[in-house]
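FAQ: What does the model actually see?

It sees only this:
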Amino acid sequence: MELANYLEDFLSLPPSFSIAYIKKDDQLLEAHIYLTYSNTNLPSDLVVHSYYERTWEHLSFFQYRCFFHCDLSIYRHKITNKLSKPEITFAQENGRFTLFYEANVMDLLKLSYSLTQVARQLKINIQKVAHLYHYYTTDLETLTFAQTTSTYLMPLKAILSTKLLIM
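And it is asked to produce this:
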């Protein structure tokens, strides 16, 4: 088994992705993994329209920052001419990080709760850390607020409505 095949197992890549080649940059301490995408279950009414390049940062590979690069197809429907793209399961729709990387960011935030420290440790922009934090916690904040609102405001509304009826 080749090194690339072992890496595919370790990286948990979906079956439609395979490693084409790997570049190592010793100066920047970065590993660039170039992927190929092959869709064997492509419906007959779709044709390849064009390609676009995507890059995602993945968890560090030993001391090297790891980046995935892939040229993805844009498909055109033969009849409707609508464009579509393949679904990427290891990253958010328009994300620049893999889901494993995002989970790592959230774990680091649990430990330090400092956006600046996490950004400095991962060597990324603080705005990216803040974006990930807000992306994953906004629903929790809304849910908590909604629960708090319904728990405390319902009796308050009842009290106010009875007071207004009495007046």
